[in-house]
Write a structure and sequence with these properties.
single chain; 100 residues; alpha/beta; four-stranded mixed sheet; 2 helices; 30% strand
């Protein structure tokens, strides 16, 4: 039976208007070590099937990424993230690794 392995991300980020990180590199450098909340969409670019181990895994490609710079919107997005985590895992709190 084919074993399903965890998803991996295709290298790179979207170009131009679909990359909200473009043009804010100095801000990101200044915020090194801090969590940044972002909205991300992705698609399954392909599915890899490794014949030797009979394993399959999806390769995901980010199609759009937008960092949320507004504090109130970032908190709202974090609540959505936490709710989605609770639904997916049936666990309580999500460790965000610092203030958001």
């Amino acid at each position: 039976m084919t074993e399903i392995k965890p998803a991996v991300f295709k290298q790179g980020v979207p170009k131009a208007q679909k990359n909200g990180l473009y043009g804010i590199e100095a801000d990101l450098i200044a915020e090194a070590g801090m969590s940044v909340v972002a909205v991300v969409t992705f698609e399954v670019a392909r599915v890899i099937h490794e014949e030797l181990g009979d394993e399959r895994y999806p390769v995901l490609e980010i199609t759009h990424i937008e960092p949320i710079r507004d504090e109130k919107a970032a908190k709202a997005a974090t609540l959505l993230l936490e709710d989605a985590y609770k639904i997916r895992t049936a666990e309580g709190a999500l460790d965000m690794g610092g203030d958001v």
